[in-house]
Specification:
It is a single chain. The chain contains five helices and four strands. The chain is α+β, with helices and mostly antiparallel strands. The chain has two domains: 41 residues, Winged helix-like DNA-binding domain superfamily/Winged helix DNA-binding domain (Arc Repressor Mutant, subunit A), CATH 1.10.10; 73 residues, Lrp/AsnC effector binding domain/regulation of amino acid metabolism (RAM) domain (Alpha-Beta Plaits), CATH 3.30.70.920. The protein has a four-stranded antiparallel beta sheet. α2 packs across α3. The longest helix has 13 residues. The chain starts with a helix and ends in a 20-residue tail after the last strand. 13% of the residues are buried.
């Protein structure tokens, strides 16, 4: 269970993970040591899974995004294929989706030539992959890993 103060700490950290502990403490009206203890507890409980730096993909010439639908053979081990896809370095996301009964994979590259090469070398090379269908992103209006944190029934 998470209380209201811990939820507020999570909301603050979600907006700015590098915010000084003293500032979080000021915003929630607690001592810095108490806030630090709460954050460590949230990390230990795996409610906070980690911290990431968001890099400018264009600076690294990885501005092109592709979503690839990956269909597998009927008898393929989908769990194993999902794990193999997830281990590929250029793959950012792997989801198994209903409706298509396929994986939806997000990858980044510098251009369509690189995307094509990555699909051939990192996706189609996996045993059990039957076919792929690629959608190239033309414009991005929002991209985030954040989601709303509401009180729901997770609070005490």
């Amino acid at each position: 269970m998470i209380d209201g103060i811990s939820l507020e700490i999570l909301r603050i950290l979600r907006e700015k993970a590098r915010i000084p502990n003293v500032e979080v403490a000021r915003q929630v009206g607690m001592a810095p040591s108490a806030v630090l203890e709460r954050i460590r507890k949230l990390e230990k409980q795996k409610i906070i899974e980690g911290y990431e730096v968001r890099l400018d993909s264009k600076f690294f010439d990885k501005g092109l995004i592709a979503f690839i639908t990956v269909k597998t053979d009927e008898n393929a081990d989908e769990i194993e294929i999902g794990k193999k896809l997830a281990r590929r370095p250029h793959v950012q996301e792997v989801h198994y989706v209903a409706g298509e009964d396929a994986f939806l994979v997000k990858l980044r590259g510098s251009d369509t030539e690189e995307i094509g090469r990555l699909i051939r070398e990192t996706i189609k090379s996996i045993n059990g992959v039957q076919l792929t269908k690629t959608a190239i992103v033309m414009s991005t209006y929002k991209e985030t890993a954040q989601f709303p944190i509401d009180d729901g029934d997770k609070t005490s």
